[in-house]
């Protein structure tokens, strides 16, 4: 069954961790943070998961959904972005209160994706 960006609530993600493989709904995934060759995945409904894959793996896997790589260390779920703060140190504010830096090289990509995803 093919799932599109228009229906992300049906998409699931398998995450390999030290505990095994966990299956999660991607709609509850707020953001992913790089940690060397590991990734920390942060959710609305469960504790974070330390995954045994690097962040670029998840960035590639989720690029056809509502996730955007905004920094070498972060991939964010557009559904959980509450604001974009412009400036020299621009960042996005997430639903869990986290402010995530947006790299200068990623600003244009983020703004394009926000225009596509949200009514602008």
Automatic annotation (TrEMBL):
<dbReference type="GO" id="GO:0003677">
    <property type="term" value="F:DNA binding"/>
</dbReference>
<dbReference type="InterPro" id="IPR007492">
    <property type="entry name" value="LytTR_DNA-bd_dom"/>
</dbReference>
<protein>
    <submittedName>
        <fullName>LytTR family transcriptional regulator</fullName>
    </submittedName>
</protein>
<feature type="domain" description="HTH LytTR-type">
    <location>
        <begin position="62"/>
        <end position="116"/>
    </location>
</feature>
<dbReference type="Pfam" id="PF04397">
    <property type="entry name" value="LytTR"/>
</dbReference>
């Amino acid at each position: 069954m093919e799932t599109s960006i228009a229906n992300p609530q049906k998409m699931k993600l398998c995450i390999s961790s030290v505990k095994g493989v966990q299956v999660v709904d991607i709609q509850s995934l707020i953001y992913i943070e790089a940690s060397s060759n590991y990734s920390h995945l942060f959710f609305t409904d469960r504790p974070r998961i330390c995954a045994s894959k690097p962040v670029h793996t998840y960035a590639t896997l989720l690029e056809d959904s509502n996730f955007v790589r905004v920094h070498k260390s972060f991939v964010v779920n557009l559904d959980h972005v509450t604001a974009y703060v412009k400036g020299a140190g621009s960042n996005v504010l997430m639903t869990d209160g986290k402010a995530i830096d947006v790299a200068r090289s990623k600003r244009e990509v983020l703004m394009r994706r926000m225009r596509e995803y949200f009514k602008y």
